[in-house]
Amino acid sequence: MAGTVRAFPDPVALVLAERTAGALLRGLGRAARVARVVELRLDYLGSVAEIARFLEKLRHERPRATLIATCRCRAEGGEFGGSPSAELAVLQLAARAGCRWVDVEGSTLERFPAPLRAALRPPAGLIVSLHNFRGTPARLLRLYRRLARLGADKVKIAVTPRRQRDNVAVLQLARRQRGRVIALAMGTVGIPGRVLALRAGSALAYAAPDGKPVVAPGQIAWREFRDSYRAQRLNARTRVYGVIGRPIAHSLSPAMHNAAFQAARLNAVYLPFEVERLDDFLACVQPLGLAGFSVTLPHKETLLRHLDGIDPLAEQIGAVNTVVVRGGGRLYGYNTDYVGILRALQGALRLHASRVLLVGAGGAARAVAFALATAGAYVSVAARRPAAARALARAVSGEALPRAGLRHQRFDAIVNCTPVGQSPEADESPLRAAELNCRVVVDLVYYPRRTKLLRLARRRGCRVVPGFEMLVEQGAAQYEIWTGLRAPVAAMRRAVLACLT
Fold first, then answer.
1. What are phi and psi of 313, to 5 degrees?
2. Could you report how far apart the first and last alpha carbons of the chain are, in Å?
3. Which strands sit side by side in the sheet containing 37-41, from one edge to the other?
4. d(Cα 313, Cα 417) in Å, to the nearest integer?
5. Angle, nearest 10°, between helix axes 164-176 and 191-200?
6. Architecture of the domain whose range is 240-335+473-500
7. Distance CA 223, CA 440 (A)
8. Residues 6+ apart with CB under 8 A from 64
């Protein structure tokens, strides 16, 4: 059977994992209405008896989708407790029940001598797999060749990137063995590699059913993978953008910018890059083909020394949140937080001659402080680090205030520029209710949509400006810098609100 099945009818497989035969059969019925390729995680059924029950029913169903059967053992990150021989026997039954592909770990096949492997091979296309949940081994090409020698029609190598260089390695493997390898990057750091793998040449990608728990770290839901990232449609002309930060999983920027690209019918994608070390990411900018990227905590200020050029306003602020990649990988930095706060406050407050308190003195606070000062506001700063508060206040001819005295002060507006209150610490607030003596409260935290600070402010009778408003406005400014086009702000706002509801 080796070599007789060459391709999949669709490059994205929907992965199903259920605990009972009935639930898996119902899930398959739903999945076959949207997906042309479905992977069945038979190991999640828990026992050979339950697996056999499902496969007997499957023989009479004949779903239109191409089915991949997987029965991964516990030692390889699966749920199957049987022996390697039992695993192969299950996959034999699956092939006879209509599964056109079976997925077997290379370590399972290597337990048998070559003649016995050939005899035990299920009558279906064979995917020989390796899963590494700890990291990304060196010499992926050598691993590919080892697995290919086991009689594979396709080799699947799934690794867990710990840095962006690992994503580059996964994509290089996909390019070198185009169509012959299923290259998969797992985990949060691996999301860029997971999305870009099809473009690089991976034979298949995997997505989770919408609203269901994932069965692999970093697995992306079906609609998000296909409709937001449009992974199956990316090609060599696709312009790649993203956001760097740590943590990054909470970011709504991918949903917002991908919605903008779709609204404008641009061949572009925006990805989340979990970045601990800037030097690692910057070494990958050209290999990953980035055209630009957003910058969030903790890199807004430290990135400055790595830039080839910087907008004068961003240089004055001392922080960037937007980078354009020009010829030769040269990096040019901008700050659109400045524009975001001004646009978000329009209609809520007359800034000229107003007194505004900023809570925090980091990169976001610097952008807000310069924006408000330029608009004619008098800026007060209260921060956990008094020296940083004094330095920022001096830079905008404002004042630094101790936290202890805030309840006795009166402001026109208060802006939270810290991450306090961001999910999962959503029950925290940077200020107490008694300290909210103002007309308007702005929280730059946008997840959750209604932070504890904003709830306290509403009870005090303050007008509130949620963080998603600034997120959308600064994102629109980023989009315009990158594309030279007017941003589809309404589409961007709808995408953000859909994530927050």
1. -70, -40
2. 50
3. 181-185, 154-159, 125-131, 101-105, 66-70, 37-41, 12-16, 205-207
4. 19
5. 20
6. 3-Layer(aba) Sandwich (3.40)
7. 38
8. 32, 36
Which letter does DSSP use for residue 326 in this model?
E
Pairing of strands 239-245, 440-443: unpaired
Q: Pick left, alpha or beta for residue 355 (phi over 0 → left; psi -120 to 50 → alpha; otherwise beta).
A: beta
How far is it, in rounded angstroms, from Cα 73 to Cα 52? 17
State which amino acid sits at residue 153.
D
Q: What is the pLDDT of residues 260-296, one digit of tens each?
A: 999 999 999 999 999 999 999 999 999 999 999 999 9
Q: Each residue of 382-440: pLDDT tens digit?
A: 999 999 999 999 999 999 999 999 999 999 999 999 999 998 899 999 999 999 999 99
Average pLDDT for the chain: 95
Domains 12-236 and 240-335+473-500 share a fold: no
Q: What kind of architecture, by CATH, is found in domain 12-236?
A: Alpha-Beta Barrel (3.20)
The C-alpha atoms of residue 162 and residue 367 are separated, in whole angstroms, by 31
Residues 6+ apart with CB under 8 A from 237: 267
Beta carbons within 8 Å of 257's beta carbon, 6+ residues apart = 241, 270, 475, 478, 479, 492
CA–CA dist 309, 201 (Å, integer): 34
Catalogue the active-site residues: 131, 156, 300, 337
The pLDDT score that the predictor gives to residue 5 is: 46
**pLDDT tops 80 at residue 3:** no
Residues 45, 18: Cα–Cα separation, whole Å: 6
Among candidate residues 343, 376, 370, the one with its CA nearest the CA of residue 358: 370
The answer to whether the CB of 83 falls within 8 A of the CB of 112 is no
CA 322, 325, 329, 332 torsion-angle sign? negative
Q: Where are the chain's structural domains?
A: 12-236, 240-335+473-500, 350-465
- Domain 350-465 belongs to what topology? Rossmann fold (3.40.50)
Distance CA 498, CA 46 (A): 36
Per the listing, tokens 């990227």 go with 293
Element (H, E) at 55: helix 48-58
